[in-house]
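User: If you would, consider this record:
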Amino acid sequence: MTSARDAAETLCNPETEVSAHYLIAENGEVLSLVPEALRAWHAGAGAWGGVTDVNSRSIGIELANSGFTPFAAAQMDALTDLLKGIKARWDIRPERVIGHSDMAPGRKIDPGARFDWRRLALEGLSVWPLPSADAPSSEGPDDARFAAMMAAFGYTASADVDLLLQSLRMRFRPRFDGPLDVRDLAIITDLASRFPVDVNAAVA
């Protein structure tokens, strides 16, 4: 959308069959569009761990951004304040705060490579790899192990390795491209070992 107003009109139009609980404008204004206890239609086909109906198990937040430009400071401030309240009300663990690109690799790209996931992690609102994931490893890149670790963290096991790699890097290594390397494997191994997706979590 070209503006938050256009996005709100789309999200509130029944004919578009898309909705979200919240929309945050570039200036930090937060629009509440659907009550948190009700289902919104923001995710569509996709999965996160054992959750295959993401719309029924999530609170959807949309941010007014093209996906290719930096997110305004006021917008990020509003998002962190909103997330703190949502997490407290629903007892959501940081590793369960994900992007649409995480639950639908290849089909969705938002929030995009310019989104500041590390800031959310520093505020306890998401997760980030430990510095040790940067350490050199004697273990070479392995597609099968990479896919298995991605699935253990939450990404859909049905996606091919290229799509999985694109989703991982969009969130954790946005400036890198090329084939799978040892750092990609180290990052997802660290995340999967500390935050296995379905441990102590009900699935549907």
Remarks:
- Strands lie at 22-24, 30-32, 61-63.
- The mean pLDDT is 92.
